Amino acid sequence: MGSILLVIHLMTAIFLVVLILMQRSGGGALNGLGGGSGANSFLSARGTGNLLTRLTAILATVFFITSIALSIYYKGAERQSSSVAESVPVSQSAPAVPSVPTVPLEK
Hints:
Blueprint: H1 2-22, H2 37-43, H3 46-80, H4 84-87
């Protein structure tokens, strides 16, 4: 469940960034990417502007909903998970340390 929600969240974020960059702005953004007037006339059309604005609002809403859902999901998952240190079996005896043979030095 969490991984599906995370994928939807990431895809929504990517599409949201693309839609925001496609919109016409005072700074230009990506509306002049084609270099010709074809790109400007396409993105400056009133219907396309309204469509991009509506899609941006819808994706922003989906982004906020998935953000809240992920935070709720991982908050609930945090209570159920245990520490990694708790899952390691504890042995009662100390581990055996191999002895290193000593070699006498010749004089």
